[in-house]
Amino acid sequence: MAYIEVQQATRQFKNGEQVTVANRDISFEVDQGAVVVILGPSGAGKSTLLNILGGMDSPTSGRVLVDGVDIAQFNSRQLTTYRRQAVGFVFQFYNLVPNLTARENVELASQITKDARDVDETLALVGLTHRADNFPAQLSGGEQQRVAIARAVAKNPKLLLCDEPTGALDYQTGKQVLQVIQDAAKQTQTTVIIVTHNSAIAQLGDQVIRINDAQVQSVEHNAHPTPLAEIEW
Ligand SMILES: Nc1ncnc2c1ncn2[C@@H]1O[C@H](COP(=O)(O)OP(=O)(O)OP(=O)(O)O)[C@@H](O)[C@H]1O
Question: Which ipTM did the prediction report?
Answer without folding.
Answer: 0.96
